[in-house]
């Protein structure tokens, strides 16, 4: 989407979330022209959405406001904070409810639309974690659900999958208030497709 010329129609968004008694508020602006352009792109493989990230101006705003929230934390604590931001900073609806059809959203669209669902959140969260924390992240593509998983350098308990010789701990940005290593109960015995991006 960032290959397009901006339209200079700038929209403003405030995202709020609470974590352990602290209230956070992040203010962003983004170009509506890039949202319109994203609508013209045919549906692609889920990995493309995590790869795309955000246009540079909006990315800079979001990353610079999240940075002090995760700085100086352990890897797990930093990831828990990013997870809570994505879990509770955005309202949830399925694509069927919002768009009447399956519609993977680019992170810019997740910011724009009033609602997002699991694959949109997983794409945004995975990009944020990779970009801000420099950790290795994969997407977990379950039947009917998408989450993410992170390879930590420290020992982590909880649900995890082995992939290419590494242990990836489940991180689900849709499962409200879950923390690192917690899968949705109904998915605990599922084997997701593991997707690199």
List the uncertain runs. Answer: none
Query: How many strands, what sense, and barrel or not for the largest sheet?
Result: 5 strands, antiparallel
Shape verdict: globular
How many H/I helices?
7
**Proportion of residues in extended strands:** 25-35%
DSSP strand count:
9
User: Order of strands side by side in the largest beta sheet?
Assistant: 7-8-6-5-9
Mean pLDDT: 95
Radius of gyration over alpha carbons?
Answer: 16 Å
| End-to-end C-alpha gap | 17 Å
- What order do the SSEs take from the amino end to the carboxyl end, as H and E? EEHHHHEHHEHEEEEE
What structural category characterises the helix and strand content?
alpha+beta
Could you estimate the helical fraction of the residues in percent?
25-40%
Helix and strand topology:
Blueprint: E1 10-19, E2 22-31, H1 32-38, H2 47-52, H3 56-70, H4 75-89, E3 91-92, H5 95-99, H6 107-112, E4 115-116, H7 118-133, E5 136-142, E6 145-151, E7 160-163, E8 166-171, E9 193-195
Parallel strand pairs: 3-4
Antiparallel strand pairs: 1-2, 5-6, 5-9, 6-8, 7-8
Quick synopsis:
With 197 residues, this protein is of the alpha+beta class. It is 36% helix and 26% strand.
Written overview of the protein:
A five-stranded antiparallel sheet has the order 7-8-6-5-9. The longest helix has 16 residues, at 118-133. A hairpin with a 2-residue loop joins strand 7 and strand 8 (166-171). It is built from seven helices and nine strands; from the N terminus they run ββααααβααβαβββββ. The protein has helices at 32-38, 47-52, 56-70, 75-89, 95-99, 107-112, 118-133; strands spanning 10-19, 22-31, 91-92, 115-116, 136-142, 145-151, 160-163, 166-171, 193-195. Helix 3 crosses helix 7 and helix 4 runs antiparallel to helix 7 (118-133). It is globular. It has 197 residues and is an alpha+beta fold.
